[in-house]
Amino acid sequence: MVKAAAAKADITPPVGVPLDGNVRDKNSRGIHDSLFAKTLVLADGEETVAVVACDLVGLSSDLVEQARQLIEKSTGIKGENVLISATHTHSGPAVLGLLGPKVDESYLEILAQKIAGAVYMAQNNLQKVSIGVGRGTVEGISFNRRIRMKDGSIRMNWEGLPEAEIEGPAGPIDPEVGVVRIDDKEGNPIAFLINFACHAAVLTGDNLLISADYPGYTTRMVEQICPVRWGLSDGGYPGTVALFTNGAEGNINHIDVHNPLQTLRIRGFKEAERIGRILGGEVVKVIERIKPEELAKVRSVSQKIELPLREISEAELQRAREVVEASPGKKLFLVDGVPEEIYARELLKLSQYKGKSALTEVQVITLGDKAALVGIPGEMFVELGLEIKRNSKFPYTFVLGLANDYVGYIPTSAAFDEGGYEVKTASWSKFDRRAGEILVESVLDMLGEDL
């Protein structure tokens, strides 16, 4: 019988740190809401696995390796059995240095220790549990951000596009809300794992307050409401931890180009709260439908894979050098999008890569024969995530993006023909068109194994 426990550690950085995810010319000015590393540990007597969800834009493989080593040393849980993911908030500390901010190495060292500490706390409080899995659907809060114009071009939905020139979205969304519910032996909920695909970027470059964005509103709502529903307390039952994991959100965000009101509220805390509470409401409905049962086993398998890098021409490099030389030391700011100077610097950075491929990791954690949690090391396009779900043998398959590494966008092959932001060469878009299908094939092979 599986035992489990959950815990969380506060990973809120000090005020004044640079923020990751948007082009900002100023550092953080305050804290709107706290950031957490939340963990769920499951053990069946033979294997122990851990899932960690961090309120961060992403995680480097170096940070993950450091945290895994600390976890293995303090708990005995094998490092490769630990999946560490990020919610992808664009209002957290600069842990990757995307779009220019300097990474605070001292914060990263403390961060690894806090992640390990959360796993240690959970591992030392394991108890017999029942586990259930469910799904719901939410429409109207996630949209494919790649917009096909009537002239055939692809634009981004944050650009303020003229309605008359829009043909429609260039791809689908994934409206599924996945939930794993963990109950103690009395039937009281102790943890929930939530999975939903949408950029946590309701707060944009003009926000200088540290925040978990909409996932923070969702998890706080679930942690407060569910204990009350079970009559455990007036809210905030200390044993209830809700982990948010993002899905295949590479081309998905919250902006509806066809809603005239959306242009008035596409960013800011009120909009993040609105989206977070809509999602949280559906999560609560799913939780109430789930009937947890005893589970016999949990398993984890991890695999290193090589993904092919894009080739950069000498002409592209020369153009990049000219752009950089024309703007030395220039401070940059944009509410959304990326200025040409940053793309130029990114191109020059990528040209220093040795070899034609990059090594990364995919991971699968299975909950008996009920569900599979698939850890993807970056921002996978929703089409690829849906392909994994369709072809999985498990009744429930949840894609956990931004897990164990940050390799940037993982687009479809078709996106390279269409163009657009996600396929423009940078450190967050460095693979060639084959990478997405290579990754999907690797995951499906792993899901097909007898774990």
Topology:
Blueprint: E1 3-10, E2 19-20, E3 30-31, E4 36-43, E5 48-54, H1 61-75, E6 82-86, E7 92-93, H2 105-123, E8 127-137, E9 143-144, E10 146-149, E11 154-156, E12 166-169, E13 176-184, E14 189-196, E15 209-210, H3 214-229, E16 241-246, E17 252-253, H4 262-265, H5 269-289, E18 298-308, H6 314-325, H7 340-350, E19 357-367, E20 371-375, E21 379-380, H8 382-391, E22 396-400, E23 409-410, H9 413-418, H10 435-448
Parallel strand pairs: 3-15, 5-6, 14-16, 20-22, 21-23
Antiparallel strand pairs: 1-4, 1-8, 2-7, 4-5, 8-13, 9-17, 10-11, 10-12, 13-14, 18-19, 19-20
Helix pairs in contact: 1-2, 3-5, 6-7, 8-10
Structural description of this entry:
This protein is an alpha+beta fold and 451 residues long. The chain folds into 2 domains: 3-297, no CATH class; 312-350, no CATH class. The chain is 28% helix and 27% strand. It contains 10 helices and 23 strands. The two termini are 17 Å apart.
